[in-house]
Amino acid sequence: MSWSWNSHGLPFLPGNTFRDVxxxxxxxxxxxxYKNGFALPNRPTVGIGRDPLLxxxxxxxxxxxxxxxxxxxxxxxxxxxMYENFIPAHVALDKKVLRYYAYFxxxxxxxxxxxxxxxxxxxxxxxxxxxxCIIEPVVKNSGILxxxxxxxxxxxxxxxxxxxxxKDLNLGKDLEVFGVKYHITQCDAFTKxxxxxxxxIVNDPVPEPVDPYSKRHxxxxxxxxxxxxVDNMYRFxxxxxxxxxxxxxxxxxxxxxxxxxxxxxxxxxxxxTVEISELHEPNSGxxxxxxxxRxxxxxxKIKSETFPSCVMEVSKDDVDxxxxxxxxxxxxxxxxxxxxxxxxxxxxxTKEYFQKxxxxxxxxxxxxxxxxxxxxDKKMENxxxxxxxxxxxxxxxxxxxxxxxxxxxxxxxxEKDHQVLRYSAVLDSQYPEDQGRRFIxxxxxxxxxxxxxxxxSRNSGIIGGKFLEQTRVPKPGSTVENPEFYSPADxxxxxxxxxxxxxxxxxxxxxxxxxxxxxxxxxxxxQTLDSLRQKLGVAxxxxxxxxxxxxxxxxxx
Length: 557
What we know:
The protein is of the alpha+beta class. The chain folds into 4 domains: 89-215, PH-domain like (Roll), CATH 2.30.29.170; 239-305 and 317-376, PH-domain like, CATH 2.30.29.170; 381-408, no CATH class; 416-542, PH-domain like, CATH 2.30.29. The chain has 13 helices and 22 strands. Helix 11 packs antiparallel against helix 12 (526-536).
């Protein structure tokens, strides 16, 4: 027992032993209390005999100090070195690609002309994830399936599940992938700079061997002893996809419903064929297939025969001369299949071709005659407005077969939504029964529309309500094609507004009307503003203030 027991005549029994004789309270503190009928735990603040307890904050602080202290003897001192910010590979190496040029040799079997072919490829190495792809450049008319040979992936290096890395690539080395050996010959400047920055010595470029098949076809051996007049193969290789384009006018006024129509004449240099197509405007009602003459060779001179003959189609034996590029001179009229065409312009490639091959021909465009120009620039006139719906909606039926809603000023509708100018008006009519009819005219700033509502009056016999729904009201005297609509500048107190043959006289307005018009005073006439100020009493209040200031000035003097 850590303390001496002093019996003071009391038996040594439970309840008769005390640590401090000066203490009088030895009960345990309450740990449960009731609040609003619910039992709630109560954390005691003192112990038995009202001994002070350590607060939880001090206890937690001591625990944290114990856990924060790391014995240096066991674990050593903490590492206080500064580390650089970590940048992941997909961020640091994003869009950084190494490019190598290589080739592979393809064996040709069962061919007496060649044994192998040298096919160049481009190898791309993506530093982001060490993936690679191999692409073979496409050669026109090669007859070989070219393009992407190996899609982007990690290429296996050996049977031990190892993959090729950028360290394994260098000039002069072989890259064997899926049974094909690619010999690297060259790389670009970025690849060389990256390899040298990583400490890799880049080898010297290796010359790419000459493909015997391409060399033989570039300089073909002569297959004949006598010179050939026309080499169709050479002409196909040099003139394929080269077309002369002329712009002309087809004069068809000789027929009953004929007119002058614009056409395009294409002359194909590869086989001296000609094609003519019409230029149709949208919604012109013409044939949807604009080909006027299919692609064919046009005979210029046909052999003369003494005996009449009838053939279904003219053959080469019946023609002395076909049309050539020299026959298409700008400014001249051509007669093609009994039709007359006036050439007036051509495209840029056609001009360059004539400057190079036929410099003696002047290919300057000519001005289209006024009659033809008027026919070219003539547009379909819209039918007159029939009065149904708005003018913009009716116009859409003339622009397209399936009408679209007219374009609206969305910004104006958003800025001035729910902004309405309201005026009081009376009906100006020659009939006595219309006297005293009162109306409210509302002008919507978001759509520039006007609506009129009739105020009901007792014992008048006229039912009030909507007199005019929201619509744009044109001014009297404006044309139907170019109408001029009412605006807030036209609504002055005392002014007469004519709405579809009904005359209304404005008598009053809201104060918001004056506030809005003063904020846009540069667009509103001064007469309109003065009439509103006079009606709403703003000008009178200003005059009274001016008079009072004058009287004060005289009294002070």
